[in-house]
Amino acid sequence: MTNSKRRRGLSVASALLGSVLVLSACSSGQEAAGSDGGTDTSQAKVDEAAAQKTSEAQIRITPKDGSTNASINNSATVTVSKGTLTEVTMTTADGTAVEGEISADKTSWKPSVQLERSTRYKVAVTAKDSKGLEAHENASFTTVSPDNSFIGTFTPDDGTTVGVGMPVSINFDKAITNKAEVQKSIDVTTSSGQEVVCHWFNANRLDCRPEEYWKEGSTVTLKLELDGVEGAEGVYGVQQKTVSFTIGRNQVSYVDAETKQMKVTQDGKVVKTIPISAGSPENKTYQGQMVISEKFKETRMNGATVGFTDDDGKGEYDIKDVPHAMRLSSSGTFIHGNYWGADSIFGSVNTSHGCVGLNDTKGADDPNTEGAWFYNNSIIGDVVVVQNTGDKTIAPDNGLNGWNMSWEQWKAGSAV
C-alpha cells in the first residue's frame, strides 16, 4: 500500500470512529433524560414524597425569636393553624418550668402566671396536622429589664372600702416625661357617674379625683393599660391591671383650733363632738382638707424625724407608744390619742407640735376614750378639715390632700 492510500484509509477510519464516539455521547444523554425521550420525574417524585411527610401545621410564637424588652404580660403566646397543639414547654434559662395552659380547641397556649422582668425564656412547641404529622418550633426571648421599664404603685388597694375623700394616687418608680401617653392609658371611672380628672403633681405622681367628694356607696374602678407604653425614652410600662374599691359612708370631721372642738359628721349631720388639743402657737397645725392615709393602733413618734430637735440633736419628744394614730400628711401631721397630757388640756388649750390630740390612755386598750372612739369609727380615706389654726393651708401633695386645689387648678394639671 502506498503511503497516500494508507493516509486516506486512516482518515476514513478516524471519521468513522469519531461518528461512533459522537453517537455514544448522545446516547448517554438520552438515557439520562429518559428512554422515552421525556423529562426525568425521579426528583419530582422525591419532592412529592418529602412533602407528604411534612406537617401542614403552622406554629407561631410571639415574641419572635431573639426579642428583647418583651412584655411580662403578653409575651409567649403560641398559636397554630392547620393543626392542633400537642405540647408546649416554657422554661427560664436555668430550666425552671413556667406554668401555662393549652386552649380547649388546642389552637393556642399562654402562660398562666405573670413573667418576671429581665429574664430569658425558652419556648418549645409541638403540633400535629390532620394526618398526624408533627411540626416543631422553638424560640427564646428576654423580658424587659427594670432599667427599661416602669411601674406605678397605686392606692387604695383592690377590694377595699374607703372614705369619700380617698383619691386614686399613683406613684411611678421612674420619672415620666411622656405624661400624655401614660395618662391616656389610665382610666378611672365611678358608678356614680361623677367626672374624674387626673392631675400630675410631678414627673412621678399622678392623682385622680372628682370635683366633689366621692358619692357614698359608689364603686370606683381603676384600669392600668400601661403594658408597652413608653413613659420616657427607652422606658416602657409593664402593668396591665384592673382594680376597684368601694366608697363607704360619708364621714367628714371638722377640727376647730379656736374652739378646740372636733365635730364628726356623717351625711352632713353631727354624730359626735370631741374636745381636742391642736398645735401650740409656736407649732401651729396646718389648715385645710386632709385625708386619713394610714391608721396605727400604736406607733412611735420621734420629734427628730420631723425637725423638732434639742441642742444635742435629739428629738424634743420620743414617744414609743402613741395610741390610735391616723396620718393626715406625709410630713408628719397626725390625729392621735394623747395619754401624757392632762385631761384638762382637751377642749381648752393647744399644746402639740402640730398634730391634733384626743384624750386617750396608755396601751390603747380603753374603748371608752375619745381617741379610741374616733379611731374605731374612722377608715382610710375619711376627711378631716382643720380650721382656725392661724397657719398656712397644707400643700395639696403633702399626703392625699389634693382637695385643697380648686377644680380649675386641678384640671390644669392634666396632660390630656
Q: Roughly what is the average pLDDT, rounded to an integer?
A: 88
Biggest sheet record: 5 strands, mixed
Structural class: mainly beta
In order across it, which strands form the biggest sheet? 22-21-20-28-23
Report the uncertain regions: 1-39
CATH superfamily of the largest domain: L,D-transpeptidase catalytic domain-like
Indicate the overall shape.
Answer: elongated
What is the third-level CATH name, the topology of the largest domain? L,D-transpeptidase catalytic domain-like
Number of helices, where a helix is a run of at least 4 consecutive DSSP H or I residues = 5
Strand portion, in percent?
35-45%
> Kindly, what is the distance between the CA atoms of the first and last residues, rounded to a whole number of angstroms?
116 Å
CATH domain class name of the largest domain: Mainly Beta
Number of domains: 3
**Rg from Cα:** 40 Å
> What is the number of E strands?
28
CATH architecture of the largest domain: Beta Barrel
User: Helicity range of the residues?
Assistant: 10-25%
GO molecular function: acyltransferase activity; peptidoglycan L,D-transpeptidase activity
Region (Disordered): 29-56
Keywords: Acyltransferase, Cell membrane, Cell shape, Cell wall biogenesis/degradation, Lipoprotein, Membrane, Palmitate, Peptidoglycan synthesis, Signal, Transferase
Domain L,D-TPase catalytic: 251-387
Please characterize this protein's 3D structure.
Keywords: Acyltransferase, Cell membrane, Cell shape, Cell wall biogenesis/degradation, Lipoprotein, Membrane, Palmitate, Peptidoglycan synthesis, Signal, Transferase. Pathway: Cell wall biogenesis; peptidoglycan biosynthesis; Glycan biosynthesis. This protein is mainly beta and 416 residues long. The chain has three domains: 87 residues, Immunoglobulin-like; 101 residues, Immunoglobulin-like (Sandwich), CATH 2.60.40.3710; 151 residues, L,D-transpeptidase catalytic domain-like. The chain contains five helices and 28 strands. The strands form seven sheets. Strands 22-21-20-28-23 form a five-stranded mixed beta sheet, with no helix packed on it. The chain starts with a helix and ends with a helix. The N terminus is likely disordered.
